[in-house]
Amino acid sequence: MPLGEKAGFEKSQSRYCGVEAEFNDDMPQLLNFNLSTGSFDFVVAPLMNPSYRPSLLEKDGVLPFAASDLVLSPSQWSSHVVGKLSSWIDLDSEDEALRMDSETTLKQEIAWANHLSVQACILPPPKGASCANYARCVNQILQGSNNMQLWLRIPLVKTDDDDMGANSTSFIDSWELWNSFRLLCEHHSQLSIALDILSSLPSLNSLGRWFGETVAAAIINTDSFLTNGRGYPCLSKRHQKLITGFFKSFNTDMVKLMDDLIVISGKPAHSIPRPSSDLAANNFDNNSESPQRHPLRPYLDYVGFLFQRMDPLPEQERFELGYRDFLQSPLQPLMDNLEAQTYETFERDSMKYIQYQRAISKALLDRVPDDKASATTVLMVVGAGRGPLVRASLQAAEETGRKLKIYAVEKNPNAVVTLHSLVKLEGWEDIVTIISCDMRFWDAPEKADIVVSELLGSFGDNELSPECLDGAQRFLKQDGISIPSSYTSFIQPLTAAKLYNDVKSHKDLAHFETAYVVKLHNIARLTPSQPVFTFTHPDYSTKKSNQRYKKLQFEIPSDTGSAMVHGFAGYFDAELYKDVHLGIEPSMATPNMFSWFAIFFPLRTPVCIKPGSPLEVHFWRCCGSSKVWYEWCVASPNSSAIHNSNGRSYWVGL
Amino acid sequence: MPLGEKAGFEKSQSRYCGVEAEFNDDMPQLLNFNLSTGSFDFVVAPLMNPSYRPSLLEKDGVLPFAASDLVLSPSQWSSHVVGKLSSWIDLDSEDEALRMDSETTLKQEIAWANHLSVQACILPPPKGASCANYARCVNQILQGSNNMQLWLRIPLVKTDDDDMGANSTSFIDSWELWNSFRLLCEHHSQLSIALDILSSLPSLNSLGRWFGETVAAAIINTDSFLTNGRGYPCLSKRHQKLITGFFKSFNTDMVKLMDDLIVISGKPAHSIPRPSSDLAANNFDNNSESPQRHPLRPYLDYVGFLFQRMDPLPEQERFELGYRDFLQSPLQPLMDNLEAQTYETFERDSMKYIQYQRAISKALLDRVPDDKASATTVLMVVGAGRGPLVRASLQAAEETGRKLKIYAVEKNPNAVVTLHSLVKLEGWEDIVTIISCDMRFWDAPEKADIVVSELLGSFGDNELSPECLDGAQRFLKQDGISIPSSYTSFIQPLTAAKLYNDVKSHKDLAHFETAYVVKLHNIARLTPSQPVFTFTHPDYSTKKSNQRYKKLQFEIPSDTGSAMVHGFAGYFDAELYKDVHLGIEPSMATPNMFSWFAIFFPLRTPVCIKPGSPLEVHFWRCCGSSKVWYEWCVASPNSSAIHNSNGRSYWVGL
């Protein structure tokens, strides 16, 4: 029974828990014991007798290595069994005979699993530090045509540099093994990780890397459990954090039975007092032999408890489930006209307009002292859309007791229709003048005290707010106020194997040189973000340019270990007016706001960063006569290509 | 006058020498002085006044930065002038105003050079260790549509690790700057190097790297010249070696006026006694003012002397000029039938057949002692083609006084026709039996004492000699001899920017996963080669397999500095019989043999190797039911993708 269902969670948020079993010729009995008696959702079981060795067989003999496929129905194989490949397989052994046997067996077992319609197989962990031949063989299978998932089993181990000295040969970081394996297999989308959770865990920074990887299953060994006061298994705080982290990081909207799993492994390591209630409950069942309680049931119960204890997702998060890690092209509101539905969505973001109202109120109070409260302030909403900022301005005026004359400037003729009807409906005709015009070209009849706009994209300037407000600045008084008064973009290096693979799946250069709006989820943020470009409004300097160039250096914390950078998350923070901010930069994000997801700048070739070697990144904002675009590159530890030269792949139209 | 023409070299082998000039508004006078008086072939000259700064100009003013385009004809601009961009340009300055001026000027000067039809421009050296913004700007130009060559000027400088300690910030290796720049520009084919040769040179290993790069021009400063006993300029031995190295490495077959140049730069640094003969020769020219000898003429003369002193190319090398760095698909003689012209070429390689004859003679003497010389040895030539090995065998028999019975087995029916006519013509009917059959399927009437074959490709086993000889082994006596008795392939990491670019130009994955036969020329061999796969014949072991796997570690000499690996050269060495070898591995290549060029295995992403970090490479020979293929990858310092998985891009048909 899925973990979530027990707690009355929605099905889409439930999790599945399996159990690792020994080889058993009698698969129906194995399933019955673990699923019916044990309440596990599936078993991870060897499909072939582990004593089988191809080289010991006589030629052309029948292979007596596995039970018949008939013992279960195809749907049982497919929904209740994850294949576990023989753990003796060692494709990088120095022993050539063992290597050859391993290759033959690997291919036979995969072929057999395919024949059974098993959805996924767990590959045994690489035996040593080298895994090239193993990867070559797995890659050949992956490049073939079948759809089975392959999960490479990786023990979650990293020795500290401090323990060993950086050059010690006994230094182990299993992430590096995984990284090497998946690079050899070209980030294949059917290859993911079954992570073995052991009793001791490496540092939090180093654990964090796995949240950017495609971890399909976390296998918790019974040895990793502690014992609580009543003799029951429980996990250390750090283990709890890791497991709930995986619960959260798994892509809940995508949950299929064979995805994002917890697996309990090992022999019972706790002797648990048989609860009397349990005895009583079973007493009515007198006909059968005393029903056996599954020896690993307490571990399952504990994992279920961890899951149920988690706070359910807030409504907005649940609404956004479908957007997690889904790559969207950024809006081009200047070049295209937004649709009603888009306005609708953004207008619902009340937190944003509360911030705007606060900023406008402060500006009005600064602009008009109490003793001159009857003076009229000319306020222009540029890019008024269907009117939410007009409303916020009027509410600010009411709140502060100031008088306004409002011009609502909007270039989208469809939005202007709605705007007219809103003004009529609300009876704002005396205060609000609607101007159906692009603010860059409007010939204003008077100058404004305050210009209010909401032209920011996820990366701040990426929807061309600077260019638009340069136009609007023409009709702002010399001492006038722009709300926002400034905004800054930020970037942050990410491990984001899933996003990288989604970009790669398009098989062209253009998608690798495009920035995407995305609800970041299955990612690891490797360092704090850093500011990139800042724009301030108004700006009357003579040599003003909206071109920008920034060089950034990121240092990944040394206890993280090596890490893979698949690209950069982009955010913005805007100063609306004085201390009233609005933004999505994680460390200072405006709470409960949903108008912006982050932006993602991919790298054509992911960059592996080793500890102590900084990541140097360059970002440019380039301006042409008809478009604005970004270029970006990595310059250290090695130089990448410059992405999106001349805006060849991705640009924003003026 | 080109350097070669003076010595009566063929035009295709001549070299051009230019001179670097200061800015001069009077371009015709500048050309006249340097070309007519000085005998230089072209000038490297600034096209704009170096005092020009865009930010100092009034807006919309006419740009008084250069002379009119009319002063020279387009063909003069194009054949006699290399543009030199303003050396003050610094796109990575911390000073934003200078950076903006630099960007504007760079683009204006390139646009002006384009307008003039200049074929190439020299970009000033990057000013500091960082060059990302410079590269971004140049890359934008390169990604545009013009055809002009851009040569990045790079001073040839590398401080020793020993001098500085590896972590010293004052460590400089200008190759790293170049490498970073070209990576940022994606190895663009119009971007190459103008290498500034200074008075002191780094180590030979480090110099060697440049021979694998696209060096368009070597600029020798007059300061770099020593003074000989008679007061004339000359170069140190090491400089001489470098310059003649460039003379050789330049792609002579491709020489165009604006390619592969020497440029003399700087002020005269030697006071040379005016030779009296010179005076006498000029005396008849009484009408004009006393003609001026060009002050840099002695430097040109010395470079010409260096060039003329070089040995002319041997005939075979001249024949192969057109093949230098030209990528060819390897032959598939098993799947396809060779054409007459191919046989013709290979049969002309007398050195190869001399070696075969020596090997066969030795084998005959070992097989048949002198006291049994009348015994007949059964010799089978498998893959007899048009008969050269039949002839070599008969000559060996004659030389050793042994008797032969020869079967000539050939699968190509076209070659069999020629073989029949040869046997008739030579009167060999009694000795030679022609078998028109694939050796793998021939049902031989008797067993052979000796099987002779020439089935080797550039990489040894790559034309499926192992599979063919497995077939032939069926009809070899248990104690019989195979000639060759074994062969081994070798690989060697290369810097090969030109080959990489040629592979890249196809813009697909398949070409990056294909091995090419190529006359290696513009390459740097970074380490000695290492053996990969060995096959021995006959091999009667029961678990015999022609699959192979080899892991190799290459250490680049520490004084090389960092280096780029674009791929691997492949070679073979064969033991024909006992000490009689045949092969192309550079350190032990059979001299004067031309049947095989090397093979080149490219890397999809070039790998940069830093000093002290070994290059780990894996090579596989994989066998399927209808094809044989190689897979390869780099596993360290970072893992590459596995190339050619399942032989998807490149394979040899069985």
UniProtKB/TrEMBL annotation, chains A, B:
PROSITE patterns: SAM_MT_PRMT. Residues 315-483 form the PRMT5 arginine-N-methyltransferase domain. InterPro entries: Arg_MeTrfase, Arg_MeTrfase_PRMT5, PRMT5, PRMT5_C, PRMT5_TIM, SAM-dependent_MTases_sf. Keywords: Methyltransferase, S-adenosyl-L-methionine, Transferase. The keyword Transport does not apply. Residues 486-652 form the PRMT5 oligomerisation domain. Pfam families: PRMT5 (PF05185), PRMT5_C (PF17286), PRMT5_TIM (PF17285). Transmembrane segments: none annotated. Residues 40-309 form the PRMT5 TIM barrel domain. Belongs to the class I-like SAM-binding methyltransferase superfamily. PANTHER family: PROTEIN ARGININE N-METHYLTRANSFERASE 5. This is Protein arginine N-methyltransferase. It comes from Salix suchowensis.
